[in-house]
Amino acid sequence: MKRLAGIAVCSLFAVLLPAQTAPIRKPVETPTPDYRDLKFPPLREVKIPDIPTFTLANGIKLYLLENHELPLVGGFALVHTGSLFDPPSKVGLAEIMGSVMRTGGTKSKTGDQIDEEVENIAASVESGVSPSNGKVSFGCLRENTTEILNIFKDVLTAPEFRQEKIDLVKNRMRGEIARRNDDASGIAGREFLRRVYGPNSPYGQQTEYADLDNIQRADLVDFYKRFYFPANTVIAIQGDFDSADMKSKIENLFADWKVQQPPAPPLPKVTAKPAPGVFVADKSDVTQTFFNVGHLAGDLRDKNYPALEVMSDILGGGFSSRLFKKVRTQLGYAYNISSDWEANFDYPGVFLVSGSTKSSTTIETIQAIEQEIENIRTSEVTDDELKTAKDTALNSFVFNFDSPGKTLGRVVTYDYYGYPKDFIFQYQKAVSAVTKEDVLRVAKEYLRPKDLTIVAVGNTKEFDKPLNTLGTVTAIDLTIPEPKKPEIPVNAETIANGKALLARSQRSVGGIDKLAMIRDATEIADVDLQAGGTTIKARQTNMSLFPNQFRQLQQMPFGLVTVYSDGTAGWIIGPQGQMPMAPQVIDQVRMEIFRNFFSILLSDRDPNRTVVAATATKVEISDRDGHSVIMEMDLDGRPIKQQYLMSGSKVEETYSDWRDVNGIKMPFHIAIQQAGQKFADVTVREWKLNTGLKPEELGKRP
Amino acid sequence: MPHRLLFLLILPLCLTAQNLKDFEKKVTEFTLTNGFHFIVCERHDAPVVSFHALVNAGSVDDPGGMSSTAHMFEHMIGKGTTAIGSKNWPEEKKALAAVEEAYDRLDAERFKGLHADLEKVKQLQASLREAIATADSFVDPNAYIRVIEENGGAGFNAATSPDTTTYFYSLPSNRLEVWFLLQSEWFRQPVFREFYKERDVVREERRMRVESDPNGKLQELAMATAFMAHPYRNLIGWASDIENLRAKNEDLFFRKYYRPSNIYIAIVGDVEPAQAKHLAEKYYSSIPDGPPPPPVITVEPEQSGEKRAVLDADAQPLVMIAYHRPSQLDKDDPVFDVISAILSSGRTGLFYKELVRDKKVSIEADTNATEPGGKYPNLFLMFSAPAPNHTVEENEQAIYSIVENLKNHKVDDETMRRIKTKIRAGLIHQLNSNSGLASQLTFYASQYGNWRTMFTGIDDIDKVTADDVQRVMKLYFGSSNRTVAYLKGATK
Question: What is the ipTM of this complex?
Answer without folding.
Answer: 0.89
